[in-house]
Request: fold
Amino acid sequence: MPVFEYHGYDAGGRKISGVVDADSPRSARARLKQQGLLVTSVTQDTGRRELFKNPLAFLANRITSKEVATFTRQLSTLQTGGLTLVESLDALIEQFTNVRFKKVVTDIREKVLQGSPLNETLAAHPEQFDPLYVNLVKAGEASGTLDKTLARLANFKEERLRQNAKITAAMVYPMVMTVIGGGVLLYLLAYVTPKVESMFTDMRHALPLPTVILLFTSNILADWWWAILLGIGGAIHLGRKYIKTAEGREKFDTHILNAPIVGALVRSAAIARFSRALSTLLGGGVPLIESLKVTASIAGNALIEKAIAQAIVNITEGQTIAGPLKKSGLFPPLVTQMIDAGERTGSLPDMLEKIGDAYEFEVETALSAMVSLVEPALIVVMGGVVGFIVMAILLPIFELSQMAR
Reply:
């Protein structure tokens, strides 16, 4: 259904503007008139207007996790304040600057106004609202605690954003060092080396091995750079395509978990994500089986998904969660023991939250330690490569000077 941008006045004479779904401009005007609004203009395709206002923002054209978290927090606040769901959505639509998100929330608002449950309207936009989000909202609507459920969701998403921000901040310096170092190397190989190559070719005796290697590498980059780029791009494309298959994903996840240093970090991050998500779902009133299904779908690791699927089978047979998780070998004994204790005492959400806190802290400390090792390693590697290039250039010059003597 098309989206129309409107401008006009409300019953109190205040200027208003917004967007509305309708089949035609006439239908849009009629719908707005029923709401007691005096419309002065109705225009289709707000995206084109936004394009002229901010071309770069429009080209990005995506709804970020931060925007979804902010939307969730504000909707929770408005619901706690006693506004109806439609009134809350109306208030949020007015403040959006992201045209795409404004259209999404407008569509949600229109369907809610027509009588659809909020969770069903959210499920129609899976890119923004994942199964965890939808199921928690469904449980909140069923129990009449939507405001509290939204607050729990906002806490969950904001915590994820904080964790991602910490990881990103930790990786900035190594990435900048890699880019700068790579740029320096390319400059030396593509510009400096060809400048002195003619001098080397005029020498009548054999060049030192480092110089031969340097010239060969420089010529390869100069003559075949396009083939190298195509090869790298093709390998990345084929690799991503293979990983999207069930077999490829399982093999990739297996290799990642078994990799030294990185494997332990990935495992801890997966356990933290699993524990935090399951705790949030169970605490929000979602049934255990449904919570495990949702958690499996967002686990991010094929092996952990298998372990959760086996746990679902065991639960339907009257067994516990901890058993299959322990048998999988993916979860440390401390985790399975805490889950088992939580099941026996009826405090599973609290236990899972503690596990999530512990492993998120472990990921932060491990990542900080890894970055602290990566930084000097990058400096040593870059220094070694630059030193090799300088040596390869200077060795023939030294030999030439000795011959001149």
Remarks:
- The chain has three domains: 3-44, 65-157, 172-405.
- Residues 78 and 88 are 6 Å apart (CA to CA).
- The mean pLDDT is 82.
- The first strand starts at residue 3 and ends at 9.
